[in-house]
Design goal:
single chain, mainly alpha, about 65% helix, globular
Length: about 100
């Protein structure tokens, strides 16, 4: 879920499309894939070093669907009107200068 939440975390200006501009910064997709591979290696081969046991294909599927579910959950949360959330996020963002594109 952390890997998928990283995609959601890219949206800070009330954007709806979490994939918009995902390849604009080449580091993001490369590091995202490296992070996924690292998760798989730690779980499958980590053994005693990380106190893990390998997952079955069914359990990997469950974790994948939970991750995709976090993308869907973000979209549902965005549909809920919340003036307080909007004001708070804007006040936090006002502290930062926009990046030049």
């Amino acid at each position: 879920m952390t890997s998928f939440n990283l995609i959601n975390a890219r949206c800070i200006h009330n954007e709806v499309n979490v994939f918009k501009g995902i390849f604009k910064n080449l580091y993001f997709p490369v590091l995202w894939v490296i992070m996924i591979i690292t998760h798989v290696v730690v779980v499958e081969v980590g053994g005693m070093a990380f106190s893990t046991t390998p997952l079955t294909l069914e359990r990997w599927a469950v974790t994948f669907f939970f991750g995709v579910g976090s993308l869907l959950w973000y979209q549902l949360i965005r549909l809920i009107p919340n003036k307080r959330r909007k004001d708070r996020s804007l006040s936090i963002l006002a502290r930062f200068e926009p990046l030049d594109d």
